[in-house]
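Listing S7. Sequence submitted for prediction.
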Amino acid sequence: QVQLVESGGGSVQAGGSLRLSCASSGYTYKTNCMGWVRQAPGKEREAVATIYTGDGATYYAPSVQGRFTISQDSAKNTLYLQMDSLKPEDTAMYYCAVVLGLRCRTLTTTYIYWGQGTQVTVSS
């Protein structure tokens, strides 16, 4: 059974940094499309960053380009999101998601498996 467990969320002041982690288990595919999606209260889900684990290709939302970095450690089966220069508008629940065996070529994709989410709150 595929499981994704996020951690690393919290409260931080504007301009600060956080690193989110997503520990994955329950599958053996090595080339997958993985990403981070966020949802703020009253707003639709927004894809933040995506990575194809086959070649490390990454894609970012314009709102986070240059501030966020998605990466993965295949040995640890862990996905990361380094978030720098955080802004109050980054406040949201952040979800890790994966679709197995897919060569993703854009920011957005239809994820199959989701984590439970981790809250990020940025104060001004």
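Caption to Listing S7: primary sequence and predicted structure tokens for the chain studied. Residues 95 and 117 are 4 Å apart (CA to CA). The mean pLDDT is 96.
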